[in-house]
Amino acid sequence: MNSLTFTLKQTLTHTLDCATLTPDNLQGKTLKQIEALPLNQKRVADYFEVFGGDTENIVFKNSSHLLNYIGKNMSIGSITIAGDAGAYLGFGLKNGTIHCTGNTQAFAACNMVSGLLKIDGNTGDFLGGASIGLRKGMRGGTIIVKGNAGERVGDQMRRGLILIEGNVGDYCASRMIAGTIGVLGTIGEYACFNMKRGTLLLAKIPKLHTTIQDCGTHTLPFLNLMFKSFKPFNTKFSNIETKRVQRFVGDAACNGNGEILILSSAS
Predict the structure, then answer these.
(1) What does the alpha-carbon distance between residue 152 and residue 129 come to, in Å, rounded to a whole number?
(2) Using CA atoms, how far apart are residues 96 and 15, in angstroms rounded to an integer?
(3) Residue 208 in 3-state DSSP?
(4) Disulfide: which of 24, 105, 206, 216 matches 87 by Cβ 3.0-4.6 Å?
(5) What's the rounded Cα separation, in Å, for the pair 109 and 130?
(6) DSSP-based three-state secondary structure for 163
């Protein structure tokens, strides 16, 4: 059975809330029922050509940065976006896999619980962060970004793994509660601001504020297990083998239980 495919018919002039177009919501529905679903006060068929029948594997073609909330609260199956995606991609993702081949807007994987989100391009601010009014961001799962990310990556992150091959903006790991963030490119200022716990793994030493303290260079055997867990994701992180790192702790203003590890070498 072919994947259920949504091909955008037109160039959008406004955002579309695609939260209903998930395997959870579409299972058991016929093509005619799916085409008749309401979407921004119109119908799905007014925006998309729909074909295929496998509702557990959904594909968006001719995609746009104006398609918001793709994969919202998804708990089963997979979604592939051939192109760009809008804001809140994978919002509240509970399980399953989302793969975007292009770029995404802000708040990707916001409130994520579990599952896997892969972004081949760049993504915006608050990756893996918390939505407005919540005190915990990402609570589990894995995010892979091949390109760059914006500001506040992992803001209030509670658990999980974020691996970014490119650069990130300011306030990376801000207010982080736990979990692991890895960045192979450069990062902006104020990394780990108000960090409670967790690990920020970096290839390059950034500009750090005064409440992040240098603890010297160490050989840490537990890194073997960490790097082994990266290998299934087929990223540049899969090739890291060093156990030698420069370790910083902080934010000392928040008891200093978080850490920054700077790799002695990475490829």
Answers:
(1) 7
(2) 25
(3) coil
(4) 105
(5) 9
(6) strand
What pLDDT is stored for residue 267 in this prediction?
39
Mean pLDDT value across residues 117-143? 95
Residue 168 reports pLDDT greater than 50: yes
How is the chain split into domains, by residue range?
A: 106-263
Polymer length of the chain: 267
Distance in angstroms (rounded) separating the CA atoms of residues 152 and 232: 26
Residues ≥6 apart with Cβ < 8 Å to 146: 118, 119, 120, 121, 165, 166, 235
Residue 234 phi, psi dihedral angles, 5° rounding: 55, 60
Rounded to the nearest 10 degrees, how much is the dihedral formed by the CA atoms of 89, 90, 91, 96? 170
Q: What's the mean pLDDT in 56-67?
A: 98
In terms of Cβ atoms closer than 10 Å to its own Cβ (0-12, 13-18, 19+), residue 100 is buried
pLDDT in tens, 14-29: 999 999 999 999 999 9
| Spatial contact of 221 and 194, defined as CB atoms under 8 Å apart | no
